[in-house]
Amino acid sequence: MGTWLYALGERGGYRDFDRQGTRWDVSAEAFKRLIQEDRYPKPMDWAIHSGFRKADQGDELYVYGGKNVGVIGKGVIRDVYQRATEEDDRWAVRWDLDAERTRTLLARPFPANEVLGWIRMPVPALVPVPTELAERIDEWLRSDPS
Question: 84-114: buried (b, 16+ CB within 10 Å) or exposed (e) per residue?
Answer without folding.
Answer: eeeeeeebbbbbebbeebbbbbbeebbebee
